[in-house]
Design goal:
63% of the residues lie in helices and 9% in strands.
Length: 276
């Protein structure tokens, strides 16, 4: 792919300290097969305060999405083999339990035709931008995504505060999802009981060291497992912990961690009753 001189001219622009503070703390996955373009985008976004992980093809991007958490994916639509469209399709269809299907995706293309824009919208892309990129526009879009995420945390907190407390263990609902396979359900409960102390140690250490990424990934994965067995109360607490970690809300993380710990103790006591 070609890259114009404008991209290098943009790279020399100075970024104000206010802009850096306003737009910092987002993790961006970049999938771009042109080394010059990927380097320029990474360097420019880092000047705006973003944490950028670079992948060079669609397969590498998919693997990275399974292993790490991001706030947004920036995908080249014209990569060979697995392009940005296919990466987005697989993400939206549920790549794995560790992937966020609602992750905002921005497509980038040297030739963003009306047909490409319609397809991008249809498969769930947030935006489609033309290369060479206008980094002020891109940074504004990323800031908008960040504000939407913070609003989601606020609204989720209101819902949790106002709703009827969920059950510690909704065995009936879980068995309905498992087509009445009670032996499987009990086996899953045993696995969860064995898993919880380990996951709690990881989360506790990460909270103590402000390791937001580890808190987010561990809480996200744990919430998925808890939902499978109907551990609604602890699952809700894990989700709130994950949301606070995603927005790097240190005060919110500590508050939600204490709530998570209470629900964890309740769940362990209930699991012991069920399994003994």
């Amino acid at each position: 792919m070609s890259i114009s001189k404008n991209l290098f001219q943009n790279a020399n622009k100075s970024i104000s300290p206010a802009a850096l503070n306003e737009k910092s703390c987002q993790r961006i996955l970049l999938a771009e097969d042109c080394p010059v373009t990927s380097l320029t985008i990474k360097e420019m976004l880092q000047r705006y305060g973003y944490d950028v992980t670079v992948t060079h093809n669609g397969n590498e991007a998919l693997q990275t999405l399974q292993n790490s958490q991001f706030d947004c994916a920036l995908l080249d639509l014209e990569m060979p083999m697995v392009d940005g469209f296919e990466v987005c399709r697989r993400l939206r269809s549920g790549l794995s339990d560790t992937c966020d299907q609602s992750l905002p995706v921005i497509g980038i293309s040297s030739h963003p035709s009306s047909l490409l824009r319609k397809l991008a919208s249809k498969i769930g892309m947030h935006e489609l931008l033309q290369k060479p990129l206008d980094f002020d526009i891109l940074a504004d879009i990323l800031q908008s995504i960040k504000k939407q995420s913070e609003h989601m945390v606020c609204e989720t907190t209101k819902i949790i505060d106002n709703q009827t407390p969920p059950e510690i263990l909704d065995k009936k609902a879980a068995l309905e999802r498992l087509a009445g396979a009670e032996e499987l359900y009990l086996d899953l409960l045993r696995k969860i009981r064995d898993l919880l102390p380990q996951k709690h140690r990881i989360i506790a250490d990460a909270v103590d060291t402000d390791d937001f990424k580890t808190v987010e990934i561990t809480a996200h994965n744990l919430a998925s497992s808890l939902g499978t067995v109907g551990a609604q109360q602890c699952m809700s607490a894990a989700k709130m912990l994950c949301l606070n970690a995603r927005t790097k809300n240190a005060e919110g993380i500590r508050s939600s961690y204490h709530n998570f710990l209470k629900t964890l103790e309740n769940l362990l006591a209930r699991l012991n009753d069920e399994l003994n």
